[in-house]
Specification:
Blueprint lengths: L1 H7 L11 E6 L2 E8 L4 E3 L2 E2 L3 E7 L1 E6 L2 E6 L2 E5 L6 E4 L3 E8 L5 H8 E2 L2 H13 L2
Antiparallel strand pairs: 1-2, 2-10, 3-9, 4-11, 5-8, 5-10, 6-7, 6-9
Length: 131
């Protein structure tokens, strides 16, 4: 979160929305992001496990094992509650795959993304409390 806050204050920040494309198939939503070489970005906090695909390029990324250098093509899953940080060493194409029938992007965000770790903890507490 500290990295994300620091990035907000830097000039010429990457406008991820303009580099993001959305694809749909029955039961699947795929989000792709082109990441220019030299960019440092942080991802969103995902509520569920997510399949990540580095289609091409080389990045340094936070993973469950620490900071790793990954080279595409590379596929891995990240656990619920994961927030990734990425430094693109070359131009990259990154994709996330979500199982859903939803096609409205705002609805998809509400279903798969949490706004903060505090919100995720509160959801977990409410879930555990109802058992």
């Amino acid at each position: 979160m500290a990295l994300e806050d620091a990035l907000k204050d830097l000039p010429n920040q990457l406008e991820a929305d303009s580099l993001t494309k959305h694809y749909f198939a029955p039961g699947i939503y795929l989000r792709s992001l082109f990441i220019p070489a030299g960019s440092v970005i942080t991802g969103k906090i995902h509520r569920h496990e997510v399949m990540n695909i580095l289609v091409f390029g080389t990045i340094q990324a936070t993973t469950d094992r620490g900071i790793e250098t990954l080279e595409g093509p590379y596929v891995f899953n990240s656990k619920p509650g994961t927030k990734k940080a990425v430094h693109a060493l070359t131009n990259c194409l990154w994709m996330n795959v979500h199982p859903t029938e939803l096609t409205d992007l705002e609805e998809i965000e509400r279903e798969f993304i949490v706004p903060s770790f505090e919100a995720l903890e509160q959801e977990d507490t409410l879930c555990l409390g109802s058992q």
